[in-house]
TrEMBL record:
The gene is LOC102372690. The keyword Secreted applies. The keyword Electron transport does not apply. SMART domains: FISNA, LRR_RI, PYRIN. It comes from Alligator sinensis. InterPro entries: DAPIN, DEATH-like_dom_sf, Leu-rich_rpt, LRR_dom_sf, NACHT-assoc, NACHT_NTPase, NLRP_HD2, NLRP_innate_immun_reg. It catalyses: ATP + H2O = ADP + phosphate + H(+). This is NACHT, LRR and PYD domains-containing protein 3.
Length: 1111
């Protein structure tokens, strides 16, 4: 006779694990049923055991439908094996008729199913069991995929050196990750789970491994990943046939007697294998004991020899584990035991491990990966990660996976709208009070008196912070009534110290946790709190800064609320009124003080932590300046500055320059600029739309005085802007922006800002579209530019000429320039108004200070590398200059004619234009027809010869002091002779003449000497880089000596002169007192001759020597 439906249901439900029973009840309460049936009430299900659950199923659904309901529920909770078995058993009556005196004892009546793959079934069940995990805040039925969440953890296999551990505890941000990475560079110091059971260096097999780690570091998730990867065929294939996972926390709840065999077989669904089959190869069986530090040993096991019999029941499951660890049972199996460091000593009384390893947590790359996996959205993950990456405190602690989870969970709540992240994100205090709470909920010990624990930890932490101690002796813990076995291990860890005599020392999981507990202690102790504030800000002990932040943060109910279940504040902390008074006094201290920006920023962080709007407003009411210059602000710093500005009433000055401002904070900052009378801002990575927003807001509430935009990659810009309430002139500079970007910004700014006096546009080509847009922007505005510069494609464009004429209507040109730096470069245009017409002296170049008089040291005994004797005065800048250099040949004639007719410059520079004699004659003819007269002409580096000398002279007016520069042209002696004759015939007198590198010899010296007439005005003569030789130089010196010369500068460098001219130079120095500069460099004098010439100079000119820098 077959079994009844009661028996089948009971048999199946007894096969379910405790967690699966909960899921079964949950699904049963809400599943859809046939018409006419109703769900079993939740109240009936909650208290029902397995037998009562069977009775409820039969009562509500009758036998046949009850079986169908049970099958559907089993399918829903993903237990396909039992669902299939019940489906088959109900149809075929697999079980035999039970005895009437044991109706419900059905577990012993296993059906003998032939050819069952027990290992395959076990692997399938393990894969199903570990493929998902619960978050700390999961509701019933909620879970996440292990594969989607698990992130690799960094594991070391060497004990910390005490000094390294201390450095790690004290470090934050990037420095902390660098210290954590240190073992990665040493192959012998870190390990992965794949190699935990590799053979040791001495050839010994690894059978017993201890994997330690602090609370929340990821020990359980690591062993879950081991189980899942093994079941999926990714790990330990061929090494272990079976891996069993036992959670010590779950074993603590098993109070009934149990044998080792029963514990092993508990993992099986029906049908179960023989225990001998499983243990046939014990060296291929691995037992994972997770959380040894939580294992509660029964008192009756003390001093009692544990049985090694597989089938002998022990008093508790914990006793079975201890038997296994001690190898009293199954001495050939492998063991992996996870524990907190605090339980290592106890563990070693049971287990002598072959390998020790420690989970260190996430390195930087793994933190970023965790964020990506958590958010499953690239944009949100990147935003969240960039936010915490700049918060050194939170980023450092994210090496702990639990902190990562808390931060991600908190940020996830505010990332439904990315723009809201800055305003809604949790404070640092809130992150860490939640961390402490979750640790206590998920990793704490139920029997712990947390009130006393918090107080004692606070005393320890406070004492350590004052004395800058992070490592504590065991005697120190005892002094504060702390024992690692009574809950303290949730927050403290331990390490070994010493070389010969090894001692155990203790530390908080990280310095940040120590700082939080120190703040908790001072929060309820007024005297300690004021002492801490005094040391932090008056004595400037910066290591206390984060403790002070936490102290402020704990004054916010939202931050303190998570801890209230475990800790009740006793005593009297600082009243809010006194804290406010202290804060205002501290702000006044740092106002107007140089180098106090770090102090100011720390105070703003404290205001952000307290999150009390009235308190913050009152604290900031006397703050008039916020100056941050080169502070390299992180995103958390920018956030607290923004928060403070939102609550400040008015600022006289806001400076945020070279602070790495992010675009999102710049956008948030803009509406607050109206509170500031003067601003100095710089930011990088800004889009065009953001730059336009910045300009619009600044122009709306202030007067812009400077705007500098530099192109970065991906159409982003670096922006520097200055503005104030004063009506100061404005300077705008654009560097290498796309032409359309410059056009768009000019269209917005120039018409709206009449105070712009200077516009420099560097690195664009200046095509017709840009020129036209700039032209209309200028015409439609009241802007009167005094200085303008940009590159131009074609100087003949009508729009370009209109721009130039528009500039000239407001200010006469002091300098007009069109030039290229090379033949392949763009043409650059520059316009500058005359000095006397500029609106503000501040736009002029600062004059350099005069050098000190007299010689600075003695002359060497031989010629110096640059041998020149000088007493030279600085020239004032000349106006009315047109520079047309290195232009394409096709533009030269038209451009010269247009510039000279429109602006009539007195000085014309046409260097580097490849002008030959024919082209020069054309230019001169057209200029003479226009009756244009020059005072100064420069034609350096062209290809002019003797044929064009007469034409050049025709440009000069008689009785005019002329400056002429013809350097680097092939004039030759004949060309100079023609030049001298023409100048004399026109009655022109020379002021400056430069004939350097013009192929001259002594043959042309008489012609040059003829220019020194009785009415001599020549003050500068440059004949360097020619071949005048000794005879030509003697002729020149003789002419100068015999004339009434006013010569101030004479350059004869590189002319082949020897000692034979020594006498002439000494006479020249003696007879021409006006001479201030004499260059004889790179000639052929001996050191003796050079010394005598120097001596003459010292004798006749040293008392008048005045050395000055040229502008």
């Amino acid at each position: 006779m077959g079994k009844t439906k009661h028996d089948l249901l009971l048999h199946v439900l007894e096969e379910l694990l405790e967690e699966e029973i909960k899921k079964f009840k949950f699904k049963l309460n809400y599943m859809d049923l046939r018409e006419g049936y109703k769900n079993i009430p939740k109240g009936h299900l909650e208290k029902a055991d397995v037998v009562q659950l069977v009775i409820l199923l039969i009562e509500y659904y009758q036998e046949e439908y009850a079986v169908e309901v049970a099958i559907n529920v089993l399918d829903d909770i993903n237990n396909k094996m039992l669902a299939d078995w019940l489906r088959k058993a109900s149809a075929e009556d697999i079980l035999q008729e039970p005895r009437h005196d044991a109706v419900w004892n059905t577990r012993v009546m296993s059906a003998k199913v032939p050819n069952v793959d027990h290992r395959g079934n076990y692997i399938a069940s393990i894969k199903e069991q570990f493929r998902k995990l619960k978050d700390y805040n999961s509701k019933p039925g909620e879970w996440v995929s292990l594969e989607d969440r698990y992130t690799k953890l960094f594991i070391v296999k060497k004990y910390h050196q005490t000094q390294d551990k201390e450095h790690e505890l004290l470090s934050r941000g990037k420095r902390h990750t660098e210290i954590m990475k240190k073992p990665r560079n040493d192959e012998d110091s870190h390990i992965t789970v794949e190699h935990l059971f590799d053979t040791l260096a001495d050839g010994t097999s690894t059978k017993k491994v201890i994997l330690q780690g602090v609370a929340g570091i990821g020990k359980t998730s690591t062993v879950c990943k081991i189980m899942y990867d093994w079941a999926c065929g990714k790990l330990y294939q061929g090494k272990f046939d079976y891996i069993f996972h036992w959670s010590c926390r779950e074993l603590n709840h098993r109070t009934k007697t149990v044998s080792l065999a029963e514990l092993i077989l508990q993992n099986w669904k029906y049908p179960k294998p023989e225990i001998k089959e499983i243990l046939s190869c014990p060296d291929k069986v691995l037992f994972i004991i997770d959380g040894f530090d939580e294992l509660r040993s029964p008192k009756d096991n003390e001093n009692k020899s544990l049985s090694c019999d597989l089938d002998t029941p022990h008093s508790t499951a914990a006793a079975v584990v201890e038997s296994l660890l001690s190898w009293r049972s199954l001495s050939e199996v492998c063991l992996l035991v996870t524990t907190r460091p605090s339980a290592l000593e106890m563990l070693e009384t049971h287990l002598k491990a072959d390998r020790w390893a420690e989970i260190m947590g996430f390195l930087e790359e793994e933190r970023e990966e965790y964020f990506k996996k958590f958010f499953r959205d690239e944009e949100k993950a990147a935003l969240a990660y960039s936010y915490i990456q700049d918060n050194d405190v939170v980023f450092t602690m994210c090496f702990v996976p639990l902190i990562c989870w808390i931060v991600c969970t908190s940020l996830c709540l505010h990332l439904s709208s990315i723009e809201d992240l800055v305003q809604k994100v949790s404070t640092t205090t809130q992150v860490f009070t939640h961390f402490v709470t979750v640790l206590l909920q998920s990793h704490g010990r139920p029997q712990t008196n947390t009130q006393h624990l918090f107080h004692n930890l606070g005393l320890l932490a406070y004492s350590g912070m004052k004395d800058q101690e992070v490592l504590f002796e065991e005697s120190t813990l005892k002094k504060y009534n702390l024992e690692m076995s009574k809950g303290t291990s949730t927050f403290l860890t331990q390490l070994l110290k010493g070389d010969i005599i090894v001692e155990t020392v203790y530390s908080f999981v990280h310095l940040t946790i120590q700082e939080l507990f120190a703040a908790l202690f001072t929060f309820s102790n007024k005297e300690a709190a004021f002492e801490l504030l005094k040391e932090a800000f008056i004595e400037k002990k910066s290591h206390l800064n984060l403790t002070i932040r936490f102290l402020f943060g704990l004054n916010n109910d939202s931050s303190l609320k998570p801890l209230k279940k475990y800790y009740t504040v006793t005593g009297t902390g600082i009243p809010m009124g006194e804290l406010l008074k202290w804060t205002k006094k501290s702000f006044l201290f740092c106002q107007g003080q140089d180098g106090q920006s770090h102090f100011l920023l720390e105070l703003l962080h404290c205001l952000f932590e307290i999150q009390d709007e009235e308190f913050v407003r009152n604290a900031l009411e006397d703050v008039k300046e916020m100056v941050f210059l080169g502070n390299n602000l992180g995103q958390d710093d920018q956030q607290v500055i923004l928060y403070s500005l939102q609550h400040a009433k008015e600022l006289h000055r806001l400076t945020l320059v070279q602070c790495e401002l992010k675009e999102k904070y710049v956008i948030k900052l803009l509406p607050l600029l109206g509170k500031c009378k003067q601003i100095y801002l710089s930011a990088s990575g800004l889009s065009l739309s953001t730059v336009n927003m910045v300009c619009a807001h600044v122009l709306q509430s202030l007067r812009m005085t400077r705007l500098h935009l530099v192109y970065e990659e991906d159409d982003r810009m670096n922006c520097t802007v200055e503005a104030s309430h004063e009506r100061d002139p404005c300077i705008i500079t654009f560097d290498y922006l796309p032409e359309e970007t410059v056009t768009a910004i000019c269209d917005q700014i120039i018409p709206a800002h009449p105070g712009i006096v200077r516009l420099d546009v560097n690195g664009i080509q200046g095509r017709q579209g840009f020129l036209t847009a700039l032209k209309y922007s200028l015409l439609e505005s009241e802007c009167k530019l005094e200085t303008l510069g940009f590159n131009i494609e074609n100087p003949n464009h009508e729009a370009f000429r209109d721009i130039c004429e528009h500039l000239a209507t407001h200010h006469s040109p002091g300098k007009f320039a069109l030039f290229r730096r090379g033949s392949e470069d763009d043409i650059h245009f520059g316009y500058e108004a005359k000095d006397e017409e500029k609106s503000d002296d501040r736009l002029q170049k600062k004059k350099k200070s005069k050098g000190r008089k007299g010689r600075s040291g003695t002359h060497p005994q031989c010629f110096p590398l640059t041998w020149f004797l000088k007493k030279k005065k600085k020239k004032n800048r000349e106006d009315g200059i047109a520079i047309l250099s290195c232009l394409p040949k096709e533009y030269i004639v038209d451009t010269v004619l247009w510039v000279t007719s429109k602006f009539t410059p007195v000085t014309l520079v046409m260097d580097d234009n490849s002008i030959d004699d024919e082209l020069m004659e054309t230019i001169c003819e057209k200029l003479n027809n226009a009756e244009y007269k020059l005072q100064s002409l420069s034609l350096n580096s062209n290809i002019l010869a003797q044929e064009s000398m007469a034409s050049i002279c025709s440009l000069f007016h008689c009785n005019t002091a002329v400056s002429l520069s013809l350097r680097y042209n092939p004039l030759g002696d004949e060309g100079v002779k023609i030049l001298a004759a023409c100048l004399k015939s026109k009655g022109c007198t020379l002021k400056n003449l430069s004939l350097s590198s013009t192929d001259l010899t002594e043959d042309c010296v008489p012609a040059i000497a003829s220019l020194f007439s009785k009415k001599n005005t020549l003050i500068q003569l440059d004949l360097s880089f020619n071949n005048l030789s000794n005879s030509g130089v003697k002729t020149l010196c003789s002419a100068l000596k015999n004339k009434e010369s006013h010569l101030e500068e004479l350059n004869l460098e590189y002319n082949g002169i020897t000692d034979d001219c020594e006498r002439e130079f000494i006479q020249l120095i003696k007879n021409i007192p006006s001479l201030k500069y004499l260059c004889l460099d790179n000639n052929e004098f001996t050191s003796t001759s050079a010394s005598r010439i120097f001596g003459a100079w010292d004798k006749y000119h040293d008392n008048e020597e005045e050395v000055q820098d040229e502008e």
